[in-house]
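Sync notes, pocket subgroup
Present: LS, DG
LS reminded everyone that the earlier model was apo-only. Rerun requested with flavin-adenine dinucleotide included. Inputs:
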Amino acid sequence: MSQALRPLFVTVTWGAGGSTATKSLELAEICQRQLGLTTCLHLTCTNMNRALIDEALEQAKVLGIRNILALRGDAPRSEEYRDEGQTPEQDSNRDFTWAVDLVRYIRKQYGDYFCIGVAAYPEGHSDESHPEHQDPTRDLPSLVEKTKAGADFLMTQLFFDVKAYDKFETMLRNHESGAFKTMPIIPGLMPIQSYKILLRTTKLSHARLPSDILARLDAVKSDDELVKQVGVQILDEMVEHIKSRPDVGKRGFHFYTLNLEKAVSHIVEDCNLIPQENMGDEDGVIVETTPAINLEPPQNMLLARERRRRSSVTSGTRNRVIISHPSATKSNHSYEATEEEAGVLRGPINTRASTLAISEGEGSLGREATWDDFPNGRWGDARSPAFGEIDGYGPTLHVSTTQALKLWGHPVDKADISALFRKHLKGELEALPWSEQGLSPETSTIAKQLLALNAKGWWTVASQPAVNGVRSTDPVFGWGPKNGYVFQKPFVEFFLPAAEFHALKTRLDAHDQVTYFAGNANGDFEASSEESVNPVTWGTFAGKEIVTPTIIEAVSFRSWLEEAFSIWREWQRIYPTKSASGKLLGQTRQDVWLVNVIWGDFVQGDGLWEFLGA
Ligand SMILES: Cc1cc2nc3c(=O)[nH]c(=O)nc-3n(C[C@H](O)[C@H](O)[C@H](O)COP(=O)(O)OP(=O)(O)OC[C@H]3O[C@@H](n4cnc5c(N)ncnc54)[C@H](O)[C@@H]3O)c2cc1C
């Protein structure tokens, strides 16, 4: 991507409450120092040990990162978030309530060293205090405050409603305070990777999907390839529309890539956003990078760590800033430091033709690009950059605390937890902590079998039925291009008490159609074979190799395991530590195992349910 798309800078997200602190810093290091990309680190300030904020800023400085997107993160909740052993003095909420507090803190501690960006919301920020009433004018006072405190640029929430963006930008430029007259405003755009991901992310980010856009996608929603193509056209039109608006300086566009590059490659190519020899008058691209849950340090990480210590004297990239001279009053902003300032000469440039070829999967750089043909959430190929939860900022319940309490009440014993799982399977409960959506039509076909497991106190969080050669256009099981057939091995994943897991394990080990992975909150791990690689969904299409979008293997299970148990903790944290619900969830988290059972015989798929029901 660094070679092909030449982004102005990349951003690295930060898990709310510091949940991805180590991974975010590792990824930022890779972007900044190994790939030589100007990097902007997101940083939140609430619900964490405040030492993490100082560590992150110090580490960013050592790595030569000079750009921080200063954010609040989730609303402060000290009572629930206090880690064991954490003193009230270590609680970041003592000093940080809003993003502006972080902006002020960074300016106080580091002067102009960091170029600071802040979040802006063209359709209004949606918060617990007024979730039903998003209104960008409500956020204006705090946006002015963030700007006056020293922010250098605004980066917006993703949106599809360009009219709302137009209105927002005009409102800011004309604001009586003059705070935004020349302030770079970077619109956030999310390429459309799939119909399902689009609906999910717009719901989570509270972005409105205009009816004409929805209608165009509805018309092709059964064909994943067409959705992508139409999605690229929609984004092209949005970019061209925004480009045609007069602005005070060069425009930058921030793409929420979800770690997938194919769609974004097409958009930046179609819209002439890839810089030539020098920036000239062209507009530019910013891409967002989310730390993959399974991020492994590269083999030369030790070397990189060693180098980190020496970096402050030798690094050529450490001077890279997004805005050359932090100042809210300059009239002609450049979005990136000059080459001399950056200390890094530009490398040879890819031609546009080769950029597209790469995104189509050609050549050595393009080999991995085919991964995003059928992104498939957390059970996708664990080597894919899109692997894992790709729509949030670290493990999260995907709903606000108020909504969580409304959905799940105050469980006081295990029967209460079982009741929630049962209601979800019956379609009476919209979401569970591990699943923010209702039951899919596909899962509904095995609801009876799942209910039987839940009746035993085995709480199911993921599953799929067997499918043996169904048309790819099938409304329930189909996916991919329309000229094919799809297949699935059945699997189910559930939490169960430790004692019951040990009894079940003996039976799992003895059956030749079973592959399983299991683990608990303490890091204990069991598997039928750690090396087994289990494609559980595959498809055959005319003129294509067999496509395998869903593979379950130890590496993918382990990373989900960590996340699944973090979600128990997130749920626990909506209740005060000493409450009955807080205690129940804490104890349950410590006891249960998560087990994933895959049944090899997809032709006799019912065997899985008979085996587990016995
Ligand atoms: C581009 C972008 C990137 C993001 N990246 C991340 C990320 O990496 N990790 C992550 O966890 N989250 C991220 N977020 C989400 C963000 O943390 C949430 O939206 C959060 O709820 C608000 O953050 P903020 O920085 O906008 O907060 P703030 O600017 O503090 O605003 C939060 C809300 O409080 C109101 N408000 C602000 N100050 C005051 C005040 N003094 N009195 C009363 N009300 C006030 C505002 O109007 C707004 O409604 C991102 C959001 C955007 C738009």
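DG: Residues 9-367 form a domain with the TIM Barrel fold (CATH 3.20.20.220).
LS: Residues 13-14, 16, 42, 44, 69, 71-73, 98-100, 119, 125, 127, 138-139, 142, 146, 155, 157, 188, 393 surround flavin-adenine dinucleotide (CB under 6 Å).
Action: DG to write up.
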